Amino acid sequence: MYLKDLKLKGYRNYEEATALFSKSINVFLGENAQGKTNMMESIYLLAMARSHRTANDRELIGWNQEFAKVYGTVEKKNNSFPLEIVLSKKGKKAKLNHLEQKKLSSYIGHLNVILFAPEDLSLVKGSPSVRRKFLDMEMGQMSSIYLYHLVEYQKVLKQRNAYLKQHKYNGSLDETYLTILNEQLAAEGSEVLAERFSFVKRLEKWAQPIHSDISQGKEKLTLDYASSVLTTSQTEKSQIMTDLLQQYEKNKKREREQGTTLIGPHRDDIRFYVNDKNVQTYGSQGQQRTAALSLKLAEIELMKEMTGEYPVLLLDDVLSELDDDRQTHLLRTIQDKVQTFLTTTSLDGVKKELLENPRIFRVHSGQIERESE
Prior knowledge:
single chain; alpha/beta; Rossmann fold; Glutathione S-transferase Yfyf (Class Pi), Chain A, domain 2; 2 domains; 6-stranded antiparallel beta sheet; 6-stranded mixed beta sheet; 15 strands; 23% strand; DNA replication; RecF_2
């Protein structure tokens, strides 16, 4: 899979821009605040129908612009098709092959991307919400079924939390209605949990040899999905649902007192162990960064396993954050395998022997121009 071209109109600081990309490595080169990350963000938006930098779509519409449009052509093994996102004050439209998609879940997954930015190096030591977001964004691309159940879970969770909050100080809570919400939430939650357990185990399978290679065989990485219910990747969904319902009953008093749902996948986490030691608590910064890099590189292989095609890789100013060994491992892993987009202010710190014939685009003041090869 690769992105053949990209056209922007009214997007951030780009009034209009067009670029034709290489199947291998594409470099956006320029000083800070010129539009390199905006270009990366537009590719991410084209794939995910949302920005990774802001939840407010209006911020993506350029100054004095009525709308913003991102258009690109995706090439896969057996077909080629356009994707288009249009943002306006009225909302967002997503088009696949020129046809507007009523549900974003039917749009997402046609262009798979993996974004690796400096903040991703904090994936291991960051908050649990960062890791839950990582799971949901990556799994949502690979599995429309997961995305569907996640959206349904979040809808019921919002209803249940609103109901608990409404009756936080009121004893007249309708037990029958709450039982219905519990059953709906547990049904969707069991689907989400089963998929997450499976995903984390498969991710571990790919991450372990990568981590071992980077650490020169000195370290073994293991991942543990830390759930609010005692479940393994082998547990049946019906059993997970039963466990969730039992937890709701067990925590009934606390949830009413606090006016929120305390149990479920929205409270879960991933734990990282290096040589059986919790690297989030006791690991060095180097170990934490190696674990994060291993996870991102493992994603590439897992996405290929699950979708049949390699994703597009977005490296947003991340090479400058990696030492020579990690930089070398990253670039060797993706060579001749994954279409890559890379932003940098200079190629001086990048090992040129690892960048074979990159297509370089100069970015300046919202203008993008391809360097002659």
